[in-house]
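We give this protein:

***
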Amino acid sequence: MPLTKLPDNLTTIGTYAFYQCRAMTIKEVPSGVTQISNYAFYNCIALTELTIKGNITSIGNNAFNASSLLAKIVLPNVTSVPTISSNSLSGTPIAKGTGYIYVSDSLIDSFKSATNWSLYADQIKGISELE
């Protein structure tokens, strides 16, 4: 049975938490989560979009790497740019230029110029553009 919802009391997505999960169909990370650790969603081939509801502060090494269908990440509640590793989104449509990251309109420029986020500058859009 595919995983469709994460527990509301979660605060961290741990290292290798969903490593190579083939049937994950979740669409949201709960609002209490502030950290996504190394390899957390590595090679989650069924993951297509994700809204990270918390004020996320860091996204670890290879966190979403090889999640080949992950084309949309929405970060509606971040108040500052989280740290991210340069390979966190490798192998995703976002890294290939066909997916998007949506952030608060007031943070667009900060994201586009931030270390490692700048790799995806053309893929960063404002929440107001969310379809």
Summary: The chain has a mean pLDDT of 95. The beta strands are 12-13, 28-29, 35-36, 49-52, 58-59, 72-75, 83-84, 100-103, 124-126. The two ends are 29 Å apart (CA to CA). The CA atoms of residues 1 and 23 lie 8 Å apart.
